[in-house]
Amino acid sequence: MIYGDARTFRTDSTVLIEGETGTGKELIAHAVHNASQRCGRAFIKLNCAAISLDLLESELFGHEKGAFTGAIAQKSGRFEMADKGTLFLDEVGDILSALQPKLLRVLQEQEFERLGSGRTHKVDVRLVAATNRNLVKMVARGQFRSDVYYRLNVFPILLPALRERREDIPAIVTHFVKLFSRRMGKQVDSIPAETMAAFQWYSWPGNIRELQNLVERAVILSRDSVLPNPLHKKQTERMIPSLHRARTFHSSMTSEDSDRALILETLEQAGWIVGGPRGAAAKLGLKRTTLLAKMKRLGISRPIPQEGTSVPGVAQEDAQIRE
After folding, report:
1. Angstrom distance (rounded) from CA 10 to CA 1
2. In sequence order, what are the beta bridge partners of 43?
3. What does pLDDT average to over the chain?
4. Residue 143 is assigned to a structural domain of this protein
5. What is the pTM of this model?
6. Are 301 and 322 in contact (CB under 8 A)?
7. Under 8 Å CB-to-CB from 146, ≥6 apart: which residues?
8. How far apart are CA 219 and CA 227, in angstroms?
9. Is residue 180, in this structure, part of any structural domain at all?
10. Domain range holding 106?
11. Angle of helix 193-201 versus helix 255-269 axis, rounded to 10
């Protein structure tokens, strides 16, 4: 889920994309540009964390010949290159305070001077900025100017970490499996339940970028059209229950289909006990109430026992699901 509103994509408003490294901030910046009236014009990007302060000013605003040692020719900056288009400043929180007033001026007035020149240049640029830092805390500590922050934060978009939206993982995995299978000319038709469960319950410190790399590795290692688990065995054992009777996640399955398959498999292993230390919720790493809500949403209910038999420990939970 993306916390934002696609209606702002079509405007010229400044957008601030916040999220951890690897959550896809640059992809969202491209989407903002492609959905805007500036689509078809320049999309210029600059990673502010990859350039020293001395060079960053020149990269942003350009310089004249002889402006500093090594400036052997005139150079246009990124704002000038992005005129009539979109400029994407990645890791904008790394811009030091000495340069922030110049950034504020171009944001407010759409004008700047090249290094070594007194001539003012006017531009028409839409800015999309991104950061993995907490700018509010940086402002409070005096590490980032509040006026620059408020000018950047016209329309914020928050990208949650992958571990906070695990329900999206099956669909993302399926997408990458199809992508890399096509690129490599390999056929991967199924994803074992153990593999999908490992993907869903891993912590993903590198977010979608890490997931993409691991799926690519798994496709490379795949045999007999089956996707292997690329995570280390110890990581998998800590995260998820052992699924001895593994069902298969076919590449055409939706995320709801894969969720349903995993939950059903775990419920059967737990004897349809939802709560408690040996219940399905604990095995899946979920709160009991969260699993009950998922079961209700997916239409999962315990099987009707044959006459004279019962399924232990589930009567109360099943009654709650039907409520």
Report:
1. 20
2. 86
3. 84
4. yes
5. 0.70
6. yes
7. 139
8. 6
9. yes
10. 6-160
11. 100
